[in-house]
Specification:
This protein is of the alpha/beta class. The chain folds into 2 domains: 170 residues, Lambda Exonuclease, Chain A (Alpha-Beta Complex), CATH 3.90.320; 52 residues, no CATH class. The protein contains 11 helices and 7 strands. Strands 1, 2, 3, 4, 5, 6 and 7 form a 7-stranded mixed β-sheet that branches. Strand 6 and strand 7 form a beta hairpin.
């Protein structure tokens, strides 16, 4: 199949024994979220994506959804011409006015200051690049992993233009911890793999130009007032391909082992049915 061809049917309910790489059977779907879940715990992946067992909606998940939607709306509503006439303090007030009045106002205030400071810097350089070239964009791609075709799908929070480079930025509503660096790099590497393999027609429909490469990526944690941008890491790209191969191997072997960590697993929706929790070695 050529890159520009239509995507085939894809599914988490994938049976490699009946798989036909010529497209007669559904191909395996991997999203950024499902990839991350498998990295966290293959058994949790199995319960969520293969068995389709429901998960509890936590306060953190609800908070994340609300603030993500608010961030998306902010960039849709931001008026560069209006903002250019504001002083720094007026700009902060303007940015804050674009966020909703809800229980997360403290985080919105942090974001408004960050957004105002960034706009003041953009006015010195290229104010047109203040707004992202895409805002919450979903992309679909297909890649070949050994004998198998895999369907990748993900939603990139924001993509900014910097000279002749695209910079994807992930937005997180939790607290930043340094140990998250490895997982964040894998998330961004997943996006790069997705971007590089998305058919040109789909990218054009989303307002993107595949001839403009991704040379850097980054993430923003407003709850910790933390932002990080770095050159892409080839090692993270390799780690993502290895992770995808591990998912395929689990389907081939019908084996989704549990990763048990006593301090973190208690918050899992599947804690009560977890093999590791209920095994004698953990009692």
């Amino acid at each position: 199949m050529e890159k520009g061809d239509l995507m085939r049917e894809f599914t988490y309910q994938w049976n490699p024994e009946e798989y036909n790489h010529r497209g007669k059977e559904p191909i395996l779907k991997i999203t950024k979220s499902s990839f991350g879940t498998f990295q966290w715990c293959p058994r949790k992946y199995f319960h969520s994506y293969v068995e389709r067992l429901p998960q509890d909606q936590t306060e953190a998940m609800l908070k994340g959804t609300i603030i993500h939607n608010s961030r998306e709306s902010f960039f849709k509503s931001f008026d560069i011409k209006k903002a250019e006439s504001y002083s720094h303090n007026e700009l902060i007030a303007y940015c804050l006015s674009l966020y909703p009045l809800d229980e997360y106002v403290d985080m919105y205030e942090t974001m408004a200051i960050f957004d105002a400071n960034r706009f003041m810097e953009a006015k010195i350089d290229t104010v047109e690049n203040y707004l992202p070239v895409v805002n919450e964009v979903k992309l679909d791609a297909e890649i070949q992993v050994g004998e198998y075709t895999v369907h990748l799908q993900g939603i990139i929070d924001r993509m900014f233009l910097d000279g002749n480079s695209h910079i994807p930025m992930e937005f997180k509503t939790g607290l930043w911890k340094d140990y998250k660096t490895t997982s964040m790099r894998k998330e961004m590497a997943f996006y790069q793999l997705l971007y590089e393999n998305t058919p040109e027609k789909i990218l054009q429909e989303k307002g993107l130009n595949q001839d403009i490469p991704i040379t850097h990526w980054g993430w923003y944690y407003p709850a910790s007032n933390y932002i990080h941008i770095e050159p892409i890491k080839k090692g993270s790209m390799t780690a993502v391909m290895k992770g995808i191969a591990q998912i395929i191997a689990s389907y081939e072997e019908s084996l989704f082992p549990t990763k048990y960590f006593a301090r973190t697993c208690t918050s899992c929706s599947y804690y009560g049915i977890c093999d590791a929790v209920n095994s004698e070695s953990w009692l």
